Amino acid sequence: MIAEKSLTTAQRDDLRVIAGLMIPQSDEYKVPGADDAAIQGDILATLGRDTKMVSAALDHIAKLAGKPLAALDDARRDAVVSEFRAGGGASA
Prior knowledge:
mainly alpha; globular; 92 residues
C-alpha cells in the first residue's frame, strides 16, 4: 500500500522509538519489541490514509523535544512523551 505522504527519516526514527516505548522487547516471552525492523516495516507499509495524522503527531513530539525524539537520551525521551500525553496529543 502506498501512503498518501511518506514519513521523513527523522519521523521514521521517532516512530520506531515510540513504538519501542509502547511495546518493548520481551526476553521472557522471546518476542521482539514494536521497534523491530520487520514490525516497523509492517507499520510503515500500512499507515495509508493515517500517514498525515501520524506525521503531524511526530512533528508535534519533535517540536516538544526541540529535536528528533530519537536523538534524545532515555530520560529526556520519557519526559517528552509524558508531556505529549499530558497535553492530549490531538493527532495521536
